[in-house]
Every structure is written in C-alpha cells, then in structure tokens.
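Anyone else keep sequences and structure tokens together like this?

Example one:
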Amino acid sequence: MAAGGTLPGWAVGFSIFGTYLSSNTFIGVPGKVYDGNWNGFVFSLSLPLAAWVAVKWFVPFYRRTGEISAYHHLEKRFGPWARTYALGCYLLTQLARVGTILFGVSLGLSALTGWSVPVIIVAGGIAVTVYTLVGGIAAVIWTDVIQSLVLLVGALVIAGLLLANHPLGPGEALHLAAN
C-alpha cells in the first residue's frame, strides 16, 4: 500500500482535487471563459459524478481484487504489453500536462520577478523532482493539500474582493456575470 496506508482520506481527497486544480486552471480558464464560453467550466461540473462512479464501482473492485492500480490490472488481464502501452500513453499525456503547467507558472512568475521563463521552468522541475524523490508519495500528497488550500483560499478572497469592490455593488456584479 502506498505510504504504508498512513495517509488520511481527506488528505488523499485534497490531493486528487489539487491534481486537477492547477495554476493553469486559475490562469487559463478565466481567460478562455471570457474570450469564448463556459464549456470548460461545464466539464468541471461532471467531476463530482465521476468521483461518485469511482467510489461506487472502481474502489470496491480494486479493494476486492487486491489490485494496486489500473496498470497492474491490465497486466494481469491482458499481459505486459497492455500495461506498457497504457502506461506509455499516460506518461506522455502527463509530461505534456506538466510542461504546460510549468510554462503557465513560469509566465506569471517571470512577470512578477523578472526572471527568465526557462530558468523558472528548470528550477520548478528540479524542485518538484527532488521533493518527490526524497519524500515519496506522502510528500506529493501533502504538497497537493497545501496547494489546494492556497488556491481555494485565494479564489475565495479574490471573489470576495471583486464582489465587494464592484462600483455598482455585489448585486449588480452578479447580475452582470449572469448575463
């Protein structure tokens, strides 16, 4: 079992949440919504349903069979080629995802600090790699918990400030947002 089974469920839940809520969510989604439509947000509304399906069917399946991952199950069911193929696809997808996240973060930090984008990307990549290798999955999960809390509190503070400081008042701000 990962981390010796010592991680509390709420921390694992925050880690899953933090995995899907990256800095790109805060940088890219508002701009995309402003520029186009709410399609990206609508996708987010399906996540609670997906979580419910996972808890209802997938978690009991993995616990019952003793599987530790979908890749392990694929290997047992179809052979090593299936595990290798699925893992390769997943790793390529995550490599692209992490690259876009590091790039997005580096754009914001570069504007704030004046540091070059490549330096920020390399430093961020090294920092994440080191704490992951040193601390293992527990370090990753606790870092995700902190990231999730910072992003949630930041979003609530920004939303509150925007509503409180709108020239026409919070009611008119919500009315404008609805239209």
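And example two:
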Amino acid sequence: MVTQGIAVTGSGDRQRLSVEHPSGEFSIEVTLEQGALTGCGLVRTARLLFDGQVCVPRALWSGAQKS
C-alpha cells in the first residue's frame, strides 16, 4: 500500500481517508468490527459529464469537427 507508514488513522470502528488528486478529491470510509472489514464506501467529486446528453467544456469545443 502506497500510504502505509504515511497515513494517520484514528481510533474506532469507522475510519475515513481523504485522497486528493489533480482533478479533485475523494473520500473512502471503512467500517471495522474486531479488526475485520465489514463495510466500505467511496464518495468522489467530479464535474458534470452527462445529463441526458454529453457535456463538453466550452473551452474545448470550437464547433468544428476533426476527422
């Protein structure tokens, strides 16, 4: 594991780790019972990708198609 020896964990049965990357951040939450993993969840932020149609950022769209 890349973060082993670097990440600091708290005490208790529920742990949360925040991971930051160039395009945003995501949080991982794990639930433990007697040291065994019993649950895991992931929340990630991201820009809108689609809403019934594909969303292309204005800065990338010139209206011309390349072949």
